[in-house]
Design goal:
Chain B: Its main location: membrane. Chain B: InterPro entries: BPD_transp_1_N, MetI-like, MetI-like_sf. Chain B: This is ABC transporter permease. Chain B: It is found in: Cell membrane. The complex is a heterodimer of chains A (about 325) and B (about 325). Chain A contains twelve helices and twelve strands. With about 325 residues, chain A is α/β, with parallel strands linked by helices. Among the domains of chain A are: about 70 residues, no CATH class; about 80 residues, no CATH class. Chain A has an eight-stranded mixed β-sheet, sandwiched between helices. Chain A has a four-stranded antiparallel β-sheet with strand order 2-1-4-5, with helices on one face. In chain A, α4 runs parallel beside α7 and α7 packs parallel to α8. With about 325 residues, chain B is mostly helical. Chain B has two domains: about 120 residues, no CATH class; about 180 residues, MetI-like fold. Chain B is about 75% helix and about 0% strand. The longest helix of chain B has about 40 residues. The radius of gyration of chain B is 24 Å and the shape is globular. The model of chain B has no long low-confidence stretch (mean pLDDT about 80). Classes of the chains: A alpha/beta (about 325), B mainly alpha (about 325). Chains A and B meet through α2 and α4 of A and α9 and α10 of B.
Amino acid sequence: MSDVALSVRDLKTFFYTNRRCNKAVNGVSFEIRKGKTLCVVGESGCGKSVTAAAIMQLLPTLSRIEDGSIVYHSDHGDIHIERLARNGSQMRAIRGAEISMIFQDPMTALNPVFTIGFQIAENLRYHTAMRGRQLRDKVVDLLRTMGIPLPERRAGEFPHQFSGGMRQRAMIAMAMACNPKILIADEPTTALDVTIQAQIFELMDRLKREHGTAIMLITHDMGVVAELADDVAVMYMGNIVEAGTVEEVLRHPVHPYTRALLTSMPVLGKGKNQSIEAIPGSTPDPFDRPPGCQFAPRCPYRVDACATMPAETHTTPTHRTMCWRYEELAADGA
Amino acid sequence: MLTYIIRRILIIVPMAVAVSFLIYLGLDLTPGDAVSHMLDPTRTVDPEKLAELRHALGLDSPLIVRYWIWLTGVLQGHFGYTLTGGVPISSLLVDRLPATLELSGTALILSTILGSILGTISALRRGSATDNVLTVVGMIGVSIPEFFFGLVAIVVFALNLNWLPVGGRLLPSYDSYWDHIPNLIMPALVLSIMMTAGVMRYARSSMLDALSREFIKTARSKGLPEWRVNLLHGFRVALTPVIVLVGFRLPILIGGSVIVEQVFQWPGLGNLFVSAVRNKDLPVVMTIALLSVVLVLTVSLIIDVLTAVIDPRVRLGA
């Protein structure tokens, strides 16, 4: 267990709106390994972001962690995050210092009325003993590390004076300020240009190598997964339908949904006439879910057994899936 | 920014002139003049004498001429004399202006601070009993006219409980701000009720808007304590629209002070204004009107500069 930074066991997070319950995350288990990147992929609304928010205890007020455990393996022993008070002092000591997070849109995620330097320094002020000159130097140093030119001047500027890519770099500087063990990135490049995307991922990959930071990257881009991931978890309607190392999941996908995701994107070099298959149908209404396997109504391999929820089954010690027909599909090959 | 401020100050002059002309025109369109108000309606007066009096007061010249005489006088610093008593208007202003500034200023500061605090509390505890009570109280504050509050306050606190004086401002030999406080409490509170309620509702929605933004989540994700997330990151962003609102509400404060000064017999400009309008004392009405026009224009400039100072995204002069 020593190489695991965070383990999530059977996490259930439900939303309560208008007296109805949306089981946004319905029994999810995974581990984030130290110094490795875990990519969580899935369509919008599958529970990726909710899982991330649950780890940080940053869930909206109408939702709560219903069941399961989130254990952070700190240097000083294990901490059960789900047992901590939402905004209590213990949770705050972890946020920003041990586990930090960057968000989708760096424009709205930065406060428009404070300077970039101030917002980065805030993090250090609450988690370290740094003050004054030392604090300023550290902020400039962080900005420089993140590849922001003229960091001394840029620290005194406001978010609206930064370009999208520079803002996200500043966000990463803020998240990395206290050298956290885990960095959660919730679709960090969705709001950015494709060329900038590559730079941001390169930066994150470098930080992972240099600082040994474990990264949980939420994305819906399979190309990014192939590029960056060590481990992959594929989510669908609140469950992890398939998880394993990047090799296992991308080369030998066993779950029909993973396969569908992989065939739904074009591959460079295959020419213009390659068949890109869209997944038929759409995601079910979260308040009116299918009884068994959530993917069954859209699944080409559907059988009668799919009316009950399949259990999680390991095909190898690291590769697991939730599908009744995984053996046939595995034998069938990709 | 400096050139912008200078330009804005220069614009105030033509705007004040234009507005003052419109007011002059409007007053001229109302029936009667100062002379007709001086007369005892039960006696008949020789029309020739009336014409003589009108000529002496300069009321028989055409509108444009009268306006021009008034305007050139004001631009040279002469506000003229009251038509009814011949008192220099400038000395009236020296008497009355401090009283009004004292009242409106106190009410403005009171309502801004109180409104922001209550609105913030309301937003932070949204949906709670506190929020609901404040919402209802706010609605009452906005919808019930000030003179009613004033009269109720006089009946309760002055006549029945005997805690505070009924009205007036100065007792002989008491003339510092602190000496006025017992007299000031009721009119200032009554005057600030409506504005407090308005600021509170606005601060609440502005605060709720700020708290729903992504950067609040970022602030929380840094491990900052709740007070800092709400009051520094949230309130600071929510503050800008509130300040703009307070600026634009200032004319209401001046308008309200006319009524409140009447109710509490506060010897300010509002009181003077009402009697001047009744007597068709044009120079006095015009002077006070001009003063409020200049005040409103100046305040809107100050608000603009202040907005640029607190919100780095706003740049002046573009």
